[in-house]
Amino acid sequence: TNLNELLNKLKIQKNKVAIEVNGEIIEKNKYPNLILNKEDKVEIVHFIGGG
């Protein structure tokens, strides 16, 4: 599974999140090419507007 597939499964829009894999922030253009392994630690931060 790559990061785009993960976001689709979770129904998350990629333009509203930042993703870190194993402590490294991943650029959005690398989502399709980054294949996740079982051991990977993925952190997804979702941006929410407010005032």
From TrEMBL:
Residue stretches in coiled coil: none
Pfam hit, one: ThiS
CDD domains: Ubl_ThiS
Name used for this protein in its record: Thiamine biosynthesis protein ThiS
Organism whose genome encodes this protein: marine metagenome
Taxonomic lineage: unclassified sequences, metagenomes, ecological metagenomes
